[in-house]
Design a protein that fits this description.
Layout (H helix, E strand, L loop, with lengths): L2 E8 L3 H12 L4 E4 L7 H6 L2 E2 L3 H7 E6 L4 H8 L2 H7 L3 E4 L5 H13 L3 E7 L12 E5 L2 H11 L5 E4 L6 H29 L4 H27 L10 H17 L5 H15 L9 H7 L3 H7 L1
Parallel strand pairs: 1-2, 1-4, 2-3, 4-5, 5-6, 7-8
Antiparallel strand pairs: 6-7
The protein binds NADPH dihydro-nicotinamide-adenine-dinucleotide phosphate.
């Protein structure tokens, strides 16, 4: 029997379990399924209903939320004939990490099989789920989003519909994770260099936090300029940035610590300077990277 007000969660990794837990706590009839059995013990104790198969899970609710490792994993469940059949006329909100192209392909597949489909991305860690701090991005048909928003709001946080293009949530996700992982690569490298200089991670942490706090206002300030093609570097020219990066590389390699990430960043800065834009800010690199042929040029160097 289908419970149109109920919700199914497919995928019970740490994030899937957090989502399902939030649905149960919000009082929704929540059915769960995971490829590997045994991950649903606490959820069932909390009140979730265990499904024996993904098609059974899909058939009992009007809305199925998928949260597995990636799009390929989601496809491997959704494209099973019995699951696709059970989902016909029902809605899937796929919150698994993906790429814009794969999300668009999944939406086209769903549309061809009578499955109503929204793509989404979760931009905050599991501890935020069910709290005001969670951030969810969605894309796909707006009416479908509005129809299911009341249930999705049980997950807490802010939900933003980014547009009808089903790849748009994944596009934001990719850009935001680019910021995140590049910062994490920098932090991991910074800790290695600091350790070589006898500074513990604990000692560095408050100062690293201070550096992190400088970034948000810089993002805001640069956004308007970049959209308008203004890369002004009046207060911090890219020549100065390249010099600072060279110090990091020298210190790092002096300790025998590889500095590949910083070498890549410094290389981009030097190329900008080489094209006569040394008075611009570091963000001029954005323009260099998006030029047609920019990638080929990078590969040649
Ligand atoms: P994982 O990314 O490790 O995903 C684990 C889940 O994927 C498990 O349910 C696993 O099933 C399932 N899975 C993997 N391969 C397959 C497959 N081929 N077929 C079916 N199921 C498969 O853990 P999370 O739960 O943390 O993440 C889920 C999604 O949420 C990911 O896309 C992640 O990027 C995203 N996310 C996670 C955050 C976090 O803080 N954890 C934060 C923001 C987003 P099984 O148990 O059988 O292996």
């Amino acid at each position: 029997m289908t419970d149109r007000s109920g919700v199914t969660v497919i995928g019970l990794g740490p994030m899937g379990r957090a989502l399902a837990g939030a649905f149960v706590r919000a009082g929704l009839r929540t059915t769960v399924w995971n490829r590997t059995p045994g991950r649903d013990g606490e959820l069932v104790e909390l009140g979730a209903v265990r499904a024996g198969t993904p098609e059974e899970a899909a058939a009992v609710s009007g809305l199925t939320v998928v949260c597995v490792v990636d799009q390929e994993a989601a496809d491997s469940v959704l494209r099973r004939e019995a699951v696709t059949g059970a989902l016909k006329g029902r809605t899937v909100v796929n919150l698994s990490a993906s790429t814009p192209a794969k999300s668009r392909a999944a939406a086209a597949w769903a549309s061809g099989h009578g499955v109503r489909y929204l793509d989404g991305a979760i931009m905050t860690p599991i501890g935020t789920i069910g709290t005001p701090d969670a951030v969810f991005l969605h894309s796909g048909p707006k009416d479908l989003y509005q129809e299911h928003l009341p249930v999705l709001e049980a997950l807490g946080g802010a939900h933003t519909h980014l547009g009808e293009d089903p790849g748009r949530a994944a596009a934001y996700e990719i850009a935001l994770l680019d910021v995140f992982w590049t910062a994490m690569a920098g932090y991991a490298h910074a800790l290695a260099v600091a350790r070589a200089e006898g500074i513990t991670a604990r000692e560095l942490a408050p100062f690293a936090t201070g550096i992190g706090a400088i970034l948000p206002p810089i993002f805001e300030e640069l956004a308007a300029g970049v959209d308008g093609g203004d890369y002004s570097g009046e207060s911090n020219p890219i020549t100065s940035a390249a010099s600072s990066m060279a110090h990091i590389i020298e210190t790092s390699e002096g300790h025998g610590i590889e500095a590949g990430v910083m070498r890549a960043a410094e290389g981009l800065a030097r190329r900008v300077i080489g094209t006569g834009h040394g008075a611009d800010g570091f963000i001029r690199v954005t323009d260099l990277l998006r030029r047609p042929g920019g990638r080929a040029e990078a590969a040649v160097r």
